[in-house]
Known about the structure:
Elements: H1 7-16, E1 22-25, H2 32-38, E2 45-53, E3 59-65, H3 72-79, E4 86-87, H4 90-97, E5 117-122, E6 131-133, E7 140-144, H5 146-155, E8 161-163, H6 169-172
Parallel strand pairs: 2-6, 3-5, 5-8
Antiparallel strand pairs: 1-7, 2-3, 2-4, 6-7
Amino acid sequence: MNSPKTDTDLFARLDELGIAHRTYEHERVYTVGESQTGRGEMPGAHIKNLFLRDKKKNLVLATVEEDRDVDLKDLRKRVGSSGNYSFGKPELLMEVLGVEPGSVTPLAVINDVERRVTVVLDKAILEEELVNAHPLRNDRTTAVTPQDLLSFLSAEGYDPVVLDFDQPADEAAE
Length: 174
């Protein structure tokens, strides 16, 4: 695999696509709790990202509101994955998305040259004014509009699955 793209490469790609972005520097954060404590007044949706693998080794990157509890069985049914999910190992995360644990972000699809990941987005984050995500490193947070996040994903070859996590899978199917 080639060297993963850096935040500088990411910012250049966002600029190339005409996507406005603002980046905030902060201490390294590895958890939602650390992020909440150290971010100060940063407007917009704050997210957490789950890098998952099913029994057939299909990969899912689920980006949800930071406080959201995610029922992995429910998510598996809604995405149509095979068997239970497990969290992707750090080596796989680096191989596919080019980031380390704590730096997982939907923006990391810039490194998924084989398009191995299915991107799942929480509908609630798309209803916010801004979405805050790590720019491939966990000592910074980059804000973009939800529409620009969708534009970026599309430009990188992704059509994300958008799920309403406020509705259980049984109700969502109706």
